[in-house]
């Protein structure tokens, strides 16, 4: 939540600071879009501009009132926590003497105490934010220690809560200082210029060389240097990495929205996540393992922790991992896990699934699990983020940058990575023969083409979605792996189209939800393969008949060639034949497209739905 950009580059003077910062904010706007602002260090001191609403409002203000050229600057796009999203509360906030500007992502939990202390000493607050408190504290600390890095260190130690902070000083035209505690900050390394950002998207247009900043560290960037110290001033050598996305991956590439583009990216996201997963002997490998394989062999329980869409990916993982590895798998929302005294010990493997790698609820659950002695494995999309750094093992999804706030391609990549994890554990524990693992991998490798076929053949889904722009409620039913798909379909529709939508386990219908069915109620039903086991297919066909008899309009997602559904489907959308456990990768795609198209027909902003932010870095 909140996007943060910092830039310094003396040789690129005359306005580049503003361009770089605004460009970075455009790429980070998915993190928050309640207001935006910038601060530049100019020849005449600090210049600031800020505006409520989306970034475009700030852009228009800057066109009307251009800012002077500068070599260093910071920028912020806000998801409001303390104080309404208006011009005054927008960041940056400035110290009482007007010499220091600061931006912030996170929540300062002891801000009321600090504010009272400042006010008692005569400081006048102009905003309702916790961030302004930091600006004034920095002003006072700078007077004492005489440099911005030292001032940041001394203030950071006084703050409780979560924060990424960036600051500039009017007297230091070639310095930006940043710090982080439980909020993300990465460093971009350029030539004669350096960058700071909430994530690498902030500077990917300028450099792919980056550096992770650890917990409780302070970074000082100048055009030619990056130096990092801990809160006590001891020098730290951070880990460097090269970003494997390019700038084009974070652009719309001719699509009307990032979401549409990211849906079209899905065949690649799955294919790339499958790439390079075996060693020279053909055995599956993880990306980073800081735990003994013997520990993984002794695991007797897996708990998947995640939030939202990532948790639905976890639910799909449960079916596959239990089936392949015969280990019990629980799936739990990270925020519930953290606060319920879960039964976790050294034989528990906790799998944390997160696109951003920064979701605070998931991060807190990871820490809690490790404190209880569990081994934590992260399935994460964003390199340089906190969750993989704090985990014992990592499996990266290679979905590329996901910019639209609603998750699509990351979901498919997370499911793919979860299958890989299941197969890896099956290999390690010998619960599947190597040739069975190889066969499932081959089936997985066929998925990108099948997903592409669903996208290419989605014309009717789009038409139906457009015709339903006035719908006030849509229900989704599924069984087995179709159940999390149903819930994901409902979530996409809620968040994009602001329509009441609910996903149910089809078997649960007659235990209550069937009371919702009335004449014309649209219901999506995800039908399992007729080739699957346990007569699941015929059970779901019966469920369709039950709701149709009560007036439901049935929108059926079924496997190609499944003519059994036709007599009961008001609309049938077919997806390519796929083994049951892998079917979510194709079945969810029509539901994503449905939500996108319906929301577009309603004239809504599908990339930035109301009230949401992509990276939820507060609990
Ligand atoms: C829904 C969506 C969210 C995220 C959730 C977890 O479309 O995007 O539900 O899935 O906030 O985010 P990550 O995966 O970054 O931990």
Describe this structure in words.
By secondary structure, the chain is of the alpha/beta class. It has 3 domains: 3-243, Glutamine Phosphoribosylpyrophosphate, subunit 1, domain 1 (4-Layer Sandwich); 258-445, Rossmann fold; 458-619, Glucose-6-phosphate isomerase like protein, domain 1 (Rossmann fold, 3-Layer(aba) Sandwich), CATH 3.40.50. Helices cover 35% and strands 23% of the residues. It is built from 19 helices and 25 strands. An 8-stranded antiparallel β-sheet has the order 3-2-4-1-10-9-11-14, with helices on one face. Helix 18 (536-548) links the parallel strand 23 (522-526) and strand 24. It is globular and about 75 Å long. The termini are close together. The mean pLDDT is 93.
Annotation, overall tally of beta strands: 25
Indicate the proportion of strand residues.
Answer: 15-25%
Task: Catalogue the ligands.
Answer: fructose -6-phosphate
**Order of the strands making up the biggest sheet:** 3-2-4-1-10-9-11-14
Annotated CATH homologous superfamily of the largest domain: Aminohydrolase, N-terminal nucleophile (Ntn) domain
- Shape, per Cα inertia axes: globular
Major sheet attributes = 8 strands, antiparallel
How does the helix and strand content classify structurally? alpha/beta
Low-confidence stretches: none
Count of helix runs: 19
Task: Kindly report the average pLDDT value.
Answer: 93
CA-to-CA gap between the ends? Answer: 11 Å
Helical proportion, percent range:
25-40%
Count of spatially separate domains: 3
């Amino acid at each position: 939540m909140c996007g943060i950009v910092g830039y310094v580059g003396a040789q690129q003077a005359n306005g580049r600071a503003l361009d770089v910062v605004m460009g970075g904010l455009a790429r980070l706007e998915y993190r928050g879009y309640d207001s935006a602002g910038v601060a530049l260090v100019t020849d005449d001191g600090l210049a600031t501009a800020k505006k409520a609403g989306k970034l475009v409002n700030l852009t228009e203000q800057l066109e009307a009132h251009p800012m002077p050229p500068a070599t260093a600057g910071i920028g912020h796009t806000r998801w409001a926590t303390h104080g309404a999203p208006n011009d005054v509360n927008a960041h940056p906030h400035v110290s009482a003497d007007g010499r220091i500007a600061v931006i912030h992502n996170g929540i300062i939990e002891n801000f009321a105490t600090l504010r009272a202390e400042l006010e008692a000493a005569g400081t006048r607050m102009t905003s309702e934010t916790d961030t302004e408190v930091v600006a004034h504290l920095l002003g006072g600390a700078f007077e004492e220690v005489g440099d911005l890095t030292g001032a940041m260190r001394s203030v950071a130690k006084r703050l409780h809560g979560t924060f990424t902070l960036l600051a500039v000083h009017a007297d230091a035209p070639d310095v930006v200082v940043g710090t982080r505690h439980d909020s993300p900050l990465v460093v971009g390394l350029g030539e004669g210029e350096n960058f700071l950002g909430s994530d690498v998207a902030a500077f990917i247009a300028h450099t792919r060389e980056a550096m992770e900043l650890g917990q409780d560290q302070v970074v000082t960037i100048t055009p030619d240097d990056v130096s990092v110290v801990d809160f006590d001033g001891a020098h730290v050598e951070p880990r460097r990495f090269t970003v494997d996305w390019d700038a084009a991956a974070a652009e719309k590439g001719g699509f009307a929205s990032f979401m549409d583009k990211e849906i079209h990216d899905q065949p690649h996201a799955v294919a790339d996540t499958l790439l390079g997963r075996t060693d020279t002997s053909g055995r599956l490998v993880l990306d980073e393992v800081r735990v003994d394989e013997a520990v993984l062999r002794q695991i007797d329980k897996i708990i998947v922790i995640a939030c939202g869409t990532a948790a639905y990916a976890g639910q799909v993982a449960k079916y596959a991992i239990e089936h392949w590895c015969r280990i019990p798998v629980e799936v739990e929302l990270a925020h519930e896990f953290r606060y319920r005294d879960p039964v976790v010990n050294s034989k528990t493997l906790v799998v944390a699934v997160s696109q951003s790698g920064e979701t605070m609820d998931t991060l807190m659950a990871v820490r809690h699990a490790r404190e209880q002695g569990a081994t934590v494995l992260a399935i994460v999309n964003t390199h340089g983020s906190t969750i993989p750094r704090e985990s014992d093992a990592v499996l990266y999804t290679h979905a590329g940058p996901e910019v639209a706030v609603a998750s699509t391609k990351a979901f498919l990549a997370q499911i793919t990575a979860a299958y890989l994890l299941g197969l890896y554990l099956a290999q390690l524990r010998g619960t599947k023969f190597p040739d069975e693992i190889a066969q499932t991998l081959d089936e997985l490798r066929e998925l990108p083409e099948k997903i592409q076929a669903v996208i290419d053949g989605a014309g009717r889904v789009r038409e139906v979605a457009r015709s339903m722009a006035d719908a006030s409620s849509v229900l989704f039913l599924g069984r087995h792996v179709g159940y999390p798909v149903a819930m994901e379909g409902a979530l996409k529709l809620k968040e994009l189209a602001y329509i009441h939508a609910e996903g149910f386990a089809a078997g649960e219908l007659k235990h209550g939800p069937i009371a919702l069915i009335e004449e014309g109620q649209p219901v999506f039903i995800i039908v399992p393969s007729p080739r699957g086991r346990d007569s699941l297919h015929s059970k779901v066909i019966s469920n369709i008949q039950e709701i149709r008899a009560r007036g439901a309009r049935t929108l059926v997602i079924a496997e190609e060639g499944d003519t059994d559904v036709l007599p009961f489907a008001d609309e049938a959308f077919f997806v390519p034949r796929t083994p049951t456990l892998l079917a979510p990768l194709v079945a969810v795609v029509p539901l994503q497209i449905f939500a996108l198209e319906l929301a577009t027909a309603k004239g809504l902003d599908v990339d930035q739905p109301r009230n949401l932010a992509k990276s939820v870095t507060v609990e």
